[in-house]
Amino acid sequence: MIQRLLGMAAAISALTMATFGAAFGCSVVELAKKVHEPLQAYRKKEVEARKWHSAEGGAWHTYVTRNGRLHSIVRIDYGETGRSQTRASFLDAKDFGIEVVTERYAEPIGSGRPTRVVSRSSVVYFFCEADGVIYLPVNASADDSVGELHEAKSLKSLFFDAGELAPYLKRLN
After folding, report:
1. Dist. CA 131–CA 24, nearest whole Å
2. Do 101 and 120 touch, CB atoms closer than 8 A?
3. Over the range 81-103, which residues count as b (16 or more CB within 10 Å of their CB) and which as e?
4. Which residues contact 152 (CB under 8 A, 6 or more apart)?
5. Residues 149-167: tens digit of each pLDDT
């Protein structure tokens, strides 16, 4: 899966360079690596989510480097029938990637049976805002692209409009 994503990111970067030249400074390949980099090496801090996206609650987890620079923020929303994890990983404040992973359970939690994940889906968005570009999922059709663009902007707002994250996002500058 990661190799496939890195291959797609390389193809997007090559296509962008072929189409627009070297004027674009954002590396989609670097963003893809950052989004899928394991987070165990970074300091983790849980931040209470002021706004929940489900009745079961949610939490933010921030990951910073040894020198205090923000690497990633992960939002986890828990639900009775599944869970959503949204991760933003940053090269800087303008160039970042967001991956959304959604898991669905076989039965609602509390049914008396063990929780079993029956489906898992993932979608990644790359933001190269210094260049004025948002890369949408490769599988988005022309009909889906408007909806995907709206979803990408909504996900960006999820992170950048959360007041409780402001102290961490300042570390990107």
Report:
1. 6
2. yes
3. ebbbbbbbbbbeeebbbbbbbbb
4. 98, 125, 127, 134, 136
5. 888 889 999 999 999 999 9
